[in-house]
């Protein structure tokens, strides 16, 4: 048995410790991503794009070429890179506000066109970087800065079901899954499959990862874990939503 | 299939949009990203017909935000990438172009101006001057060529790719609906046959070797933690811009030496201005002609000189003073009186300009 190094090889030691708050889900998603890149041996071909949101704190996170873009616009920037140089493996990393609100037209159309890129989205139910406003994914009755009495679904609708939406739009060849930072092994396996899907030129790949934001949730370690592990999956069902050449598998 | 679209110089009769597509192929543009909007559509139509024959690519995006940001991605991958838009599309284009400004990316955008504000008309205007020169939340760190005829559309589209990649500022060719849709004669040529060297693009991402092992990773950002960090970066940009400006600023002028009134115009309006000045000179009137070809950067020294020599500057444009604002900013404190002649969103004839110049002589 080989011993897993504490830090993925493609992480950039000079930019560690990273800039996320303690207990933040972003660091865990990027750990799963780092290990996936290592295991696939693609550090020399990856282009990592990060959005505006707390994801931007990862602009120098990896020893891979990286582009920090605008809020919601990482999907088209990575699409542009991939279309111009298909040998590169393009990863668009963003938050739920970036992917499902301001950049939703890009996500929908990249999926429709079956762009050969991988979108990785950290769902933390809030606009974290701007201070915890309501996001498209805020849970019913969950409190947020712009929903101080809790999200009223009559007024503001229900949380976006991202992977389900993408799976419905994307055609054969696409890979779509929802993982969680509560199960990093599974999340890594989804990210690996998504990247492989891109490398094999099959189609669009999309992985959403449930992630914690203890700072804006204002939760201690126990409450953070409970929200991430018990409350969120009630609404956001973890599992693979679309796998090339297979029937849809609903997981866990 | 021949490798080159233009193997030898020839006279052609084309619409401006077709000219742009030909020029982009001749300039070695590798990929276009675009979203339909009148009056630039035919740039995409001609490009998509030419592209597969010359191993070029095209992507039709979901909007102009995406067209601009995919263009940003294309240049970062090391390809000569471009887009084209107009009017409300140009409004959306400002967000990606501000990223290009912030990160010194050599994007090329062709703007075929239409009426504004809002949807207005699909026909013609010079109302996208402010937006194209100083749009976005930035400082106007851009290069903008305002063309007047089809020969210039061809010449300056080729030049746009060269200056963008040489100086790394987002570059615009500012045309309009008249130039886009009109047919006109011009000479097309292969730039290299004419001794014009085509600047080679270079990748920002995806260079050879493993980052962190064989080379440093490319880490590109437009966000800074502290004010001083941003301030320093911008000071360097301003220095580069000023240096570039001396090499890039272009203009045309005649009969300005002894002129009492100088007619100032840009783009397609300068055709009428030129004829008007020629006519008045024949009648012995002391009128001169000046036309900046670059609206960013402007030929500042020449403008200041004019504004201290002539009695009056007649500024003519198909907008309510957008071009005049740029000029007035440069010549502030000079002795000449500025006389406006603005017709926002409509064409201006030779006769109208001549009459106005006569009136103020
Ligand atoms: C065009 C634009 N609008 C708004 C903002 C402000 N803004 C910065 S980060 C952010 C929210 C990010 O939320 P999310 O995408 O969920 O990422 P998180 O911080 O939660 O990881 C917003 C609205 C911006 N930078 N650009
Ligand atoms: S605010 Fe939330 S999402 Fe942002 S770094 Fe802190 S914990 Fe992470
Ligand atoms: Mg969020």
How would you sum up this structure, described in words?
The complex is a heterodimer of chains A (252) and B (361). The two termini of chain A are 28 Å apart. Chain A has 252 residues and is of the alpha/beta class. In chain A, a hairpin with a 5-residue loop joins strand 5 and strand 6 (133-134). Chain A has 9 helices and 9 strands. In chain A, helix 1 (25-40) packs across helix 7 (184-199) and helix 3 (96-102) crosses helix 4 (104-112). Chain A has one domain (13-251): Thiamin diphosphate (ThDP)-binding fold, Pyr/PP domains (Rossmann fold). Chain B is of the alpha/beta class and 361 residues long. Chain B folds into 2 domains: 10-194, 3-Layer(aba) Sandwich (Rossmann fold), CATH 3.40.50.970; 252-360, Rossmann fold (3-Layer(aba) Sandwich), CATH 3.40.50.920. In chain B, 41% of the residues lie in helices and 20% in strands. Chain B has 12 helices and 15 strands. Chain B has helices at 16-26, 41-50, 64-76, 87-103, 129-134, 150-167, 177-181, 227-248, 269-282, 300-309, 322-331, 350-360, and strands at residues 10-15, 31-34, 57-60, 81-85, 108-113, 143-146, 171-176, 183-188, 219-220, 251-254, 261-264, 287-292, 294-296, 312-317, 337-342. Chain B has a 7-stranded mixed sheet with strand order 3-2-4-5-7-6-13, with helices on both faces. In chain B, helix 1 (16-26) packs across helix 2 (41-50) and helix 3 runs parallel beside helix 4 (87-103). The longest helix of chain B is centred in the middle third of the chain and has 22 residues, at 227-248. Chain B is globular. Chain B starts with 9 loop residues before the first strand and ends with a helix. In chain B, 52% of the residues are buried. The model of chain B has no long low-confidence stretch (mean pLDDT 97). Strand 2 (65-68) of chain A pairs parallel with strand 9 (219-220) of chain B. Bound molecules: thiamine diphosphate, iron/sulfur cluster (SF4) and magnesium ion (MG). Thiamine diphosphate binds at residues 52-55, 71, 94-98, 122, 124, 126-130, 135 of chain A.
């Amino acid at each position: 048995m080989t011993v897993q190094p504490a830090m993925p090889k493609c992480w950039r030691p000079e930019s560690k410790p990273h800039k996320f708050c303690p207990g933040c889900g972003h660091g865990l998603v990027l750990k799963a991503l780092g290990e996936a890149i290592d295991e696939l041996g693609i550090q020399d071909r990856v282009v990592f794009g990060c959005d505006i949101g707390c994801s931007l704190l990862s602009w120098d996170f990896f020893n891979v070429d990286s582009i920090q873009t605008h809020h919601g616009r990482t999907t088209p920037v990575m699409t542009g890179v991939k279309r111009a140089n298909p040998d590169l493996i393009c990863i668009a990393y963003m938050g739920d506000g970036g992917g499902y609100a301001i950049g939703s037209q890009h996500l929908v159309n990249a999926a429709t066109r079956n762009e050969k890129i991988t979108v990785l989205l950290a769902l933390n139910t809030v606009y974290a970087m701007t201070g915890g406003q309501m996001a498209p994914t805020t849970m019913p009755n969950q409190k947020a800065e712009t929903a101080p009495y809790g999200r009223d679904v009559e007024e503001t609708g229900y949380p976006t079901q991202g992977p389900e939406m993408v799976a419905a739009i994307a055609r054969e060849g696409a890979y779509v899954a929802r993982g969680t930072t509560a199960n990093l092994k599974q999340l890594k396996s989804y990210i690996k499959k998504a990247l492989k899907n891109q490398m094999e030129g099959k189609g669009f790949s999309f992985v959403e990862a449930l992630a914690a934001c203890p700072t804006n949730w204002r939760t201690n370690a126990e409450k953070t874990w409970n929200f991430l592990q018990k409350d969120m999956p009630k609404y956001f069902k973890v599992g693979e939503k679309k796998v090339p050449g297979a029937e849809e598998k609903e997981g866990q | 299939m021949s490798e080159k679209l233009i193997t030898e110089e020839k006279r052609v009769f084309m619409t401006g949009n077709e000219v742009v597509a030909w020029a982009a192929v001749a300039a070695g543009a590798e990929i276009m990203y675009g979203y339909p909007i009148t009056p630039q559509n035919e740039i995409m139509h001609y490009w998509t017909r030419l592209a597969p024959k010359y191993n070029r690519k095209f992507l039709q995006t979901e909007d102009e935000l995406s067209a601009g940001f995919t263009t940003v991605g294309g240049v970062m991958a090391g390809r000569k990438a471009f887009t084209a838009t107009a009017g409300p599309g140009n409004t959306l284009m400002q967000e990606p172009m501000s990223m290009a400004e912030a990160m010194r990316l050599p994007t090329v955008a062709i703007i075929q101006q239409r009426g504004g504000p809002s949807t207005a008309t699909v026909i013609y205007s010079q109302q996208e001057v402010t937006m194209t020169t100083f749009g976005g939340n930035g400082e106007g760190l851009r290069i903008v060529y305002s063309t007047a005829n089809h020969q210039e559309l061809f010449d300056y589209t080729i030049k746009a790719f060269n200056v963008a990649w040489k100086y790394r500022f987002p570059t615009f060719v500012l045309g309009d609906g008249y130039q886009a849709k009109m047919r006109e004669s011009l000479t097309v040529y292969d730039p290299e046959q004419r001794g014009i060297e085509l600047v080679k693009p270079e990748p920002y991402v995806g260079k050879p070797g493993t980052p962190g092992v064989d080379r440093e990773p490319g880490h590109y950002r437009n966000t800074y933690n502290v004010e001083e960090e941003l301030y320093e970066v911008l000071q360097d940009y301003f220095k580069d811009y000023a240096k570039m400006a001396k090499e890039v600023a272009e203009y045309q002028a005649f009969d300005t030496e002894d002129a009492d009134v100088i007619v100032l115009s840009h783009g397609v309006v300068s055709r009428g201005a030129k004829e008007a000045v020629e006519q008045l000179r024949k009648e012995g009137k002391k009128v001169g002609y000046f036309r900046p070809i670059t609206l960013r950067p402007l030929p500042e020294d020449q403008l200041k000189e004019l504004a201290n020599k002539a009695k009056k500057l007649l500024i003519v444009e198909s907008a309510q003073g957008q071009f005049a604002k740029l000029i007035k900013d440069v010549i502030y404190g000079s002795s000449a009186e500025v006389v406006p002649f603005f017709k926002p969103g409509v064409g201006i004839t030779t006769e109208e300009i001549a009459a106005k110049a006569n009136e103020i002589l």
